[in-house]
Design a protein that fits this description.
- This protein is an alpha+beta fold.
- Helix content is 42%, strand content 15%.
- The strands form four sheets. Strands 3, 4, 5, 6, 7 and 8 form a six-stranded antiparallel sheet that branches. A six-stranded mixed sheet has the order 9-10-11-14-15-18, with helices on both faces. Strands 2, 12, 13, 16 and 17 form a five-stranded antiparallel sheet that branches.
- It is globular.
- 43% of the residues are buried.
Amino acid sequence: MKNNKNIIKTLSFLILFSAILFYYQVGCAPCVPKEEKTPEQIQNVKAPKADKESVAVSQVAASILTKLHYQKRDISKETSVKFFHEYLKKVDPLHMFFTKDKIKEWEAQAPELLTKLLDGDPKFAYDVYEYYLKQLAKYKVYARDFEVSGRQLKKDETFEIDRSKADWPANEAEMKEIWRKKLKNDVILLTILDRIEKEKAKEKSDKPATKWKKLPPLEQVKKRVAQFITEEESATSITVLEGYLNALAGLYDPHTEYMAPATEEDFNINMSLSLCGIGAVLSPADDGSTKIVKIVPGGPAMKNGQLHAEDRIIAVAQGNQEPVDVIDMPLNKVVRLIRGPVGTEVVITALDAKDGAGGTPKTVRLIREEIELKDAEAKSEVREIKGENGKKYRIAIINLPSFYCDFEAAQAGRKDYKSSTRDVQKLLREIRAKGEIDALIMDLRFNGGGSLAESIQLTGLFIPDGPVVQVAESNGKVGVEYDRDGGKVEYDGPLIVVTNKFSASASEIFAGAIQDYGRGIIAGDKKTHGKGTVQTIVDIAEYFRYLGLKYKGGAMKLTKSKFYRINGHSTQLRGVIPDIIVPSFTEAMKAGEDSLDNPLPWDEIKPAEHYTSKNITSTAHWLNQRAQERIAKDPEFQKLQKDIERYRKNQEKKYISLNIEKRWEEYLEQKRILDEQEAQLNKDDETKDPKKKKKDILLDEIVRIACDYADATR
């Protein structure tokens, strides 16, 4: 949406990745602790304290949140207790530094924390953070003294993958046991990674590309522990408060947050920040990694083809320089590492979304480019194919990566300003000038939204005048947005809109309107993303000026309203349910709004008056039957289903082996499966043309559905 500049947060992290992420997350501890020599500095560790600016921000931000958010929450002791637990999870997300006895000691303060915050008292945030830093200082000593033998690495034991959902350690002894297993997992992973690199070098009869001398795995881990702790110790008063306020904001919904002044600056260059010179929209994940939300069409990452949505970036290097670990690094710092001069090389180390808990990092080398609007604009193709009945069909496909508009040029009155609707209209006219088409496919997969006005105008290309979307405010007022183009329809033939779990916001408005009017068929994943909320930015400095204060203050990104389809249903959580479900890998990913913490609920309001095609339901049913029969017999979809099943099995893993030989065997088995699949795909591809576009079996099936649709409407 125009008002929604959010880089989609994530989305709760996948169990699939977490075991590997532990390696980069926090470091290590001794297998058999040596004599503990707690340095004097552990007792003297001090966290930042609340200054005048932080006190003012805490009061104003908490007041804005509790009074202006779409969902009004009671300022109760129950809410305050939830706030207490959310903050502890935010400071120690993997439950590795706070023990049950310490939490019990703090619990007495929990019922009053929210009231105190509204009164401008955030002291609890700083007390907890100071204790956290002292625990990290102890952890650093453990990491420094750690030693591990080859025999210990072969010992059979397991490690809990997802510590964020684990219970807090009961005492110091339990906490140290977690540290011990954590370290062992780290060393195993690094050792295996080194072994893989050596195996690849042997296969290529080549030397490793790195020009620096690699540290042994154990020393690498110790170095990263020190880096992580240094980063945590660099927190300022306002950044500690930012985490505290966001623990409260997260109770309201996953898209509401407080942004400290530095965070707000990065947010204000949203697209430049997100594209990062490689063409990937990034998001900080709750576990400290940097997640790829989506790959931008036309950018280096898409051209390279090795990075995908849901992959996790764990290290960044400049050319052949030593990689920098980016786990627990703030997003703005990760971005600065990835961005750089056009034409220079950046090396991304990432965890593949498909590999599972036993997987290993992949290294992707990319040349930075400036991502221009034309690289991400609407594109078209026409497929002239022979259907199953022997007839020839001309099927047009328009891929729309986002609902974009050059607002500055439009406001300046330029007649040639760029917009998604104008581009789609132009493409349609160019296609039809070369001959009429039998059906049109609008591909909105991975389209995360954009301009609300554009989604309304694009809908207008396919319907006469009428309502497109309803917007409800927190006070109950509902507004209706209309297509008002004088009844003009650019295309009135068979239309299929393709969506997946990454089709969000404006995409859901367009797809929902097409479905509600019975104007076309929706096909794809079981549902779209399910983001039916609108955010606005509230500048805290404006409130400070009213109070006579001169602080910057930062800003609140606040959910202010909800979208509703013209049939009265919210797009929140449920998204848009397609008429035809076509299997895809994205369906298996935990990427929708319902995978986030505390999403706003689904509901419905009164429908807006609109017409609906009477024949669309029966046509959709017939098309679905035909499609499912083909899919069940298609070898490519059968291979896809096996890949999805393997992915889901990896997601279900709760524990990982800490026996290095077993882990190596797991890697070899995964590699064997992937190699077999790749070999089969190459065998099936008779052309074996390296420049040939990668096969899109879902879109191929959509084209076949379009042929059926054309027959049904003749």
